[in-house]
Amino acid sequence: MRMNRTEQLDALVSTKEFDICVIGGGATGLGIAVDAASRGYRTALFEKYDFAKGTSSRSTKLVHGGVRYLQQGNIKLVMEALKERGLLKKNAPHLVKNQSFVIPNYKWWEHPFYGVGLKVYDWMAGSLGLGPSEFLSLEETLALAPTLDPEGLRGGILYHDGQFDDARLAVHLAMTAADLGTVILNYCGVEGLIKEKNKVCGVMVHDSLHDKQYIVRAKAVINATGVFTDSILKMDDSEAEPIVAPSQGIHLVFDKEFLPSDTAIMIPKTDDGRVLFAVPWHNKIIVGTTDTPVSKTPIEPLAQVEEIEFVMHHITRYLTKDPERKDIRSIFAGLRPLIKGNSKITASLSRDHHISVSESEMITVAGGKWTTYRKMAEDVVDIAIHKAGLPIKACTTDELCIHGYREKVDYTKPLYYYGSDEDGIHALEKKDPGLKALIHPRLPFIKAEIIWAVQHEMCQTVEDALSRRTRALLLDAKAAIESAPVVAAIMARGLNKEKDWEQEQVNAFNITAKHYLPSVNQITQTVN
């Protein structure tokens, strides 16, 4: 089935009952939909906003085993994540690539300490490893990361992990689910649960784009809503205890001049115990992240002044050219759905996933991380099969190619992350050469990508287009704001919308996008 919203709504109406209904269109929910549909179960997924609107589009863009978790002694999580990293690289080579990292060593003990730890990391990855770690001399370290501060530098360690575009993977998982027959809808929020004899047997869905209600029956209902998990638990049982301890992490985006290399930097220990990354991504540098416990879970979390200062303070310790606030191109914040524990420090809480079944037999999954989304989905679907009495079918996603799969990928090509869909975008350009034009001179995205997103990727708003179908908002917030009228006009033609819609979309996008600008972010937080 195509990922066309009108066709998906028609399929929703024509299906009397689903085997599995998934609430939440982030990494976990999309993974569950792909797993369930690939086993042949009639599956539906509902997302209140857009796919990956929340946490799943705001990561550090790494598919990794977790060097930090190795330090903490969480061997099980690291082993699982390294295996999943390898499977994801194999099943989505157009989306996941090998990224080399340097850990700079400024103290005598760091060379042997981190070197031995990373050799263990290599060994744990086994045949799914991306490359062996290496001890580097001072000269070799500076050759790979020429803007590292050389004063006191003794050498470094080189190791390998995976890098990806998180929102693009989410979109391709949604397309994979649709390819497999899933009824999948964004801007459809679950506003209530249907129960018979105190057992959940469906959901009440509100399509916010058309202001229409749907009653959807299902044999199993799965809550996969990340940081919003507790609100669905309360919908099921008003007395339900919260299980999520949200933590905020922010990232700052700079031009590549601050790290003019294809090699990332990993700083193994900051003042709050987290690691800090400076990672090349779409010809920019992403620096992060923080770990700040928060009590609220807004759909658009804002970076706090203290968090911005924290990242700036740490990255300037390691670079010869210190970035200033005026050099920040974008600031984005995301919330982690950590599982509640005894610790008051969220940096020490587990990223292991947690699955529970309520008295009404609603299944809830929380925690985890992007890298392990496939394994989380497998575990949840196995439980759903048992609880709903579905015919038992084995999981096949460890060998399932994700939509757009292309074996040989040239990562230097501007549209490489579309995989086989790149051919469709070129076909649009061939029909109308004007679509080869950039949406903005400082952004790498072309008009044909916006048309493609509207026609094939269920792109409904200017924010969908500039934040998740392209990554304009995260790469350069000011340029994204300036490109919004162009994008709105392209989308209006594709969606048959009037001029008023264009202006409404531009206004709505500007309200959201201004918080990605450093000056506005600082003012907002100071006032609050």
Write up this protein.
The structure is a single chain. The protein is α+β, with helices and mostly antiparallel strands and 528 residues long. The chain folds into 3 domains: 174 residues, FAD/NAD(P)-binding domain, CATH 3.50.50.60; 180 residues, D-Amino Acid Oxidase, subunit A, domain 2 (D-Amino Acid Oxidase, Chain A, domain 2), CATH 3.30.9; 106 residues, Orthogonal Bundle (Helicase, Ruva Protein, domain 3), CATH 1.10.8. 37% of the residues lie in helices and 22% in strands. The protein is built from 17 helices and 18 strands. The strands form 2 sheets. Strands 3, 4, 5, 6, 11, 12, 13, 14, 15 and 16 form a 10-stranded mixed beta sheet that branches. The radius of gyration is 23 Å and the shape is globular. The chain starts with a helix and ends with a helix.
Helix/strand layout:
Blueprint: H1 5-14, E1 18-23, H2 27-38, E2 43-46, E3 62-63, H3 67-71, H4 75-91, E4 96-105, H5 110-125, E5 134-136, H6 138-144, E6 155-164, H7 166-179, E7 183-185, E8 188-196, E9 199-207, E10 212-223, H8 229-236, E11 244-255, E12 264-267, E13 276-281, E14 284-288, E15 292-293, H9 305-316, E16 330-339, E17 353-357, E18 363-367, H10 373-388, H11 422-431, H12 447-456, H13 462-469, H14 472-475, H15 477-495, H16 499-513, H17 518-527
Parallel strand pairs: 1-2, 1-10, 2-7, 4-12, 10-18
Antiparallel strand pairs: 3-6, 4-6, 5-6, 8-9, 9-10, 11-14, 11-15, 11-16, 12-13, 13-14, 17-18
Helix pairs in contact: 2-7, 2-10, 11-12, 12-15, 15-16
